[in-house]
Amino acid sequence: MKRKITFVITGLGTGGAEMMLFKLLSRMDKNDFVPEVISMTDYVPLKVIFDEIGVPVKTLGMRRGVPELKGIYRLVKAFRWSDPDLVQTWMYHADLIGGIAAKLSGNLSVVWNIRNSNLDPSSSKKTTIMTAKTCAIMSKYLPRKIICCAEEARRVHEKIGYDSKKITTIPNGFDLDSFKPDPVGRNEVREELGISKDSFIVGLVARYDPQKDHKNFVHAAQMFKSLITKVDFVLCGDGINYDNEELTSMLDSSGVRDRFHLLGRRSDIPRIVSSFDLKCSSSSYGEAFSNSIGEAMACGVPCVVTDVGDSAYIVGDTGKVVKPRDSESLCMAWYGFWKMHKEERMNLGNQARQRILEMFSLDTVVEKYENIYRDILN
């Protein structure tokens, strides 16, 4: 008999957490499970891709970032209407409100999902910290299981009081059929952007956000450009465009604006990433398990990453790890890859893809989620 699972999430923006939910549902065994999604807010730009895989999305009309009592009431009504066998919540606000609503709806079984590894007061919102700490107290009573996307996230949340007996770690998974080396795309992207075939491309795929630390990347680029002449920097993600005055001012001040290509949000990420010689993650905090690192590795592109969240664990010995907020170390790591023979760099890229295949394939990750659901439902 098929079992119905209702997934509750704050919203369906274009972040890594939302995309991981999509990837999970795209591969879920539909012979065993019937998934649906409830977005607590009406911010659902990704709804269209959930529609494409036949997963219905409902919205509750709550305000973003503001837990509301009426939201609990609306969610209780939604649960009673849809009558799920299990509720899977996704991120703090959904964990708290979804957990309470599930209890009020007939003591439904709930699985929480944690997607964050940073609760530093200097870089996290007060409401986020307050919600996480409230969840820590309620973790003894509301969820049957708590899934963290990274070991660093697990450590941080156990430290603030989450019930360690309920926590398990399931990393993000990657679709190796979609993310794979693309020599044709590599040449096409370079031609489209006016980049010569022998230019060394360092790429960054990340929305414009303080935690992604584009300032660190730009400073490293300024140093790197003084070391080599044929280099280009390709950036894409929400807010990465020439209308972003803060970013363009940063580029103007660095003197390397002419070497940057700002592409904004792209739907052809595997093709874009395949044009890179090197993928960078320059984040200074907040990463738990980076999707963009794993996606680049799946495309056979070696990575230089800052030691934030599980980034070092993801790349293993296939890339380089440097301290966050250290532009000079970031630059010199890039330089180390540039000095490598092309075949040596390609070999590391192949090893990176193999690491994703063995440890982080999407099918393996989906199976781990399904096994937890089956254990609870059975």
* Structural Rg: 21 Å
Terminal Cα separation, in Å?
A: 12 Å
Low-confidence stretches: none
Fraction of residues in helices?
40-55%
Present the secondary structure layout:
Layout (H helix, E strand, L loop, with lengths): L2 E7 L6 H12 L5 E9 L5 H6 L4 E6 L6 H14 L3 E5 L1 H13 L5 E5 L11 H13 L6 E4 L2 H9 L7 E3 L13 H11 L6 E6 L8 H14 L3 E6 L8 H10 L5 E3 L6 H5 L4 E4 L9 H8 L4 E4 L4 H5 L4 E3 L4 H13 L2 H18 L2 H16 L1
Parallel strand pairs: 1-2, 1-4, 2-3, 4-5, 5-6, 6-7, 8-9, 8-11, 9-10, 11-12, 12-13
List keywords for this structure.
single chain; 378 residues; alpha/beta; 7-stranded parallel beta sheet; 15 helices
Produce a short descriptive summary:
This protein is of the alpha/beta class and 378 residues long.
Describe this structure in words.
Helix content is 44%, strand content 17%. It has 378 residues and is an alpha/beta fold. The strands form 2 sheets. Strands 3-2-1-4-5-6-7 form a 7-stranded parallel beta sheet, with helices on both faces. A 6-stranded parallel beta sheet has the order 10-9-8-11-12-13, with helices on both faces. Helix 2 links the parallel strand 2 and strand 3. Helix 8 packs parallel to helix 9 and helix 8 (214-227) crosses helix 13. The N and C termini lie close together (12 Å). The relative contact order is 0.12. The model has no long low-confidence stretch (mean pLDDT 94).
